[in-house]
């Protein structure tokens, strides 16, 4: 009887899974929907070059600030209600900013939209921990794929939608996903008692050696005092810094190498799309391996090899360099899985997720700006690639700590019973 239980343990949790996937689909749209049509938006909203640069820095800064605040709010209000508020904020921000005609309100409502998404970034891992502690790898893989899709789909569809509907309708239309994402979580909150009872039944019947089910005790310490927290935050930050630097500057690198501007855009799209397969594979590998550091090291090497290729022969072998750089950010979905695999409770996962993403995104904020400064002052890309390779070295060292088998709560003293989950 017990052998058949894992196959059935998805039953009753499909609504939660749908909610997780819908939220993940909404977490990058406010960023990706604007950049392909930025020239049109700038004309109508009167964004100067400086303000356009500010717009480019808002996502990382918002993810850092509001991601850090999410655990504080969730501890008081509950994970699910906080996520509902986050999705409402993102939808309202997206819609209202599409109606503005001056730069101040446009930037302000962009911050509101990204505040909701920054909170959602942090809240998804502990929700996976709460509802799918026996399926951390597969569920993280599914929602990582959804996040990757939410980056690539707007990049492909934003310009055609803007031509057909106008840029304001095109931007506002993406808020539909945030609105729809609220529905499953409202149902989960309304049915919270039944959902918790069903989850307890599933976990009681699951084999005791199932990953993520050992010793469910309350988190009660300071993440910033642990090597695990800093290792994961530094690895997360360096990965984000390199990824966003490429999103910002890859087309210019290829144009300077002699490729036409439209080719730079196509290669950037390929760079984004190539992240999809490893968004699925990364969490699965992290869940199956006791120490997934060899995978993280290979991905770091892909960053270095891709950078050297772009530096030494950007126009020849471009496809290979894009392949390497496209799969290298796979460290990100691995770290999302490790947030749950290195904690015992949803409270621990919330604390670790908030610290890792808050500090990590904060570290990455200066990255695209530093790349621009070095490029402007040196007139070339050599110094830029030296800087980026140095950050990859930091990533590799930090990942060694992040991937090491350990449990966050073990460093926080004696365990105490965790109270029943309340939305």
Give the topology, please.
Blueprint: H1 5-8, H2 14-26, H3 29-32, H4 38-45, H5 49-77, H6 79-97, H7 103-131, H8 136-165, H9 167-173, H10 175-190, H11 192-205, H12 227-256, H13 261-273, H14 275-288, H15 293-312, H16 318-327, H17 331-341, H18 346-364, H19 366-378, H20 382-403
Helix pairs in contact: 2-7, 2-8, 2-10, 5-6, 5-7, 5-18, 6-7, 6-10, 7-17, 7-18, 8-9, 8-14, 8-17, 12-13, 12-17, 12-18, 12-19, 12-20, 13-16, 14-17, 15-16, 15-20, 19-20
Question: How would you describe what is shown here?
Answer:
There is one protein chain. The protein is an all-alpha fold and 423 residues long. Helix 7 (103-131) packs across helix 17, helix 8 crosses helix 17 (331-341) and helix 12 (227-256) packs antiparallel against helix 20. It folds into two domains: 1-214, Up-down Bundle (Growth Hormone, Chain: A); 220-423, Growth Hormone, Chain: A (Up-down Bundle). The longest helix has 30 residues, at 136-165. It is 77% helix and 0% strand. It has 20 helices and no strands.
Q: Give the name of the CATH superfamily of the largest domain.
A: MFS general substrate transporter like domains
The coarse silhouette is globular
Q: From the helix content, strand content and strand pairing, which structural class follows?
A: mainly alpha
| Uncertain spans | 1-8, 211-220, 414-423
CATH architecture of the largest domain: Up-down Bundle
Number of helices: 20
Q: What's the domain count?
A: 2
The termini sit apart by: 32 Å
Could you tell me the mean pLDDT?
85
GO molecular function, one term: transmembrane transporter activity
Main location: membrane
InterPro entries: MFS, MFS_Cyanate_Porter, MFS_dom, MFS_trans_sf
Pfam families: MFS_1
């Amino acid at each position: 009887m017990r052998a058949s239980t894992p196959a059935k343990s998805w039953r009753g949790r499909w609504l939660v899974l749908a909610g997780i996937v819908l939220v993940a689909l909404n977490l990058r749209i406010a960023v990706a929907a604007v950049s392909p049509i930025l020239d049109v938006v700038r004309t109508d909203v009167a964004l100067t070059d400086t303000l356009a640069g500010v717009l480019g820095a808002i996502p990382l800064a918002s993810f850092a600030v509001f991601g850090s605040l999410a655990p504080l709010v969730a501890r008081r209000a509950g994970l699910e209600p906080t996520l509902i508020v986050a999705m409402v904020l993102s939808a309202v921000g997206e819609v209202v900013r599409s109606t503005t005609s001056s730069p101040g309100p446009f930037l302000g409502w962009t911050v509101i939209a990204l505040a909701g998404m920054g909170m959602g970034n942090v809240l998804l891992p502990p929700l996976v921990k709460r509802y799918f502690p026996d399926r951390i790898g597969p569920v993280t893989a599914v929602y990582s794929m959804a996040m990757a899709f939410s980056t690539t789909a707007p990049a492909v569809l934003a310009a055609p939608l803007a031509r057909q509907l106008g840029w304001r309708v095109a931007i506002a239309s993406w808020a539909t996903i945030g609105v729809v994402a609220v529905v499953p979580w409202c149902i989960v909150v309304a049915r919270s008692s039944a959902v918790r009872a069903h989850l307890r039944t599933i976990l009681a019947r699951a084999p005791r050696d199932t990953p993520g089910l050992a010793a469910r005790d309350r988190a009660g310490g300071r993440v910033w005092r642990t090597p695990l927290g800093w290792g994961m935050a530094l690895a997360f930050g360096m990965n984000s810094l390199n990824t966003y630097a490429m999103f910002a500057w890859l087309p210019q690198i290829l144009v300077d190498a002699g490729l036409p501007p439209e080719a730079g855009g196509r290669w950037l799209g390929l760079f984004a799309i190539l992240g999809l397969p490893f968004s699925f594979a990364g969490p699965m590998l992290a869940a199956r391996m006791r120490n997934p550091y060899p995978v993280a090291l290979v991905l770091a090497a892909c960053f270095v090899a891709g950078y050297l290729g772009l530096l030494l022969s950007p126009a020849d072998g471009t496809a290979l360099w894009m392949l390497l750089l496209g799969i290298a950010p796979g460290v990100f979905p691995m770290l999302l899985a490790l947030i749950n695999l290195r904690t015992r409770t949803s409270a621990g996962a919330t604390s670790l997720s908030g610290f890792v993403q808050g500090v990590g995104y904060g570290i990455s904020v200066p990255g695209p700006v530093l790349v621009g400064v070095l490029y402007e002052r040196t007139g070339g890309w050599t110094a830029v690639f030296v800087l980026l390779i140095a950050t990859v070295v930091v990533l590799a060292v930090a990942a060694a700590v992040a991937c090491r088998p350990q449990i966050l709560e073990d460093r926080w003293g004696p365990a105490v019973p965790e109270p029943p989950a309340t939305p």
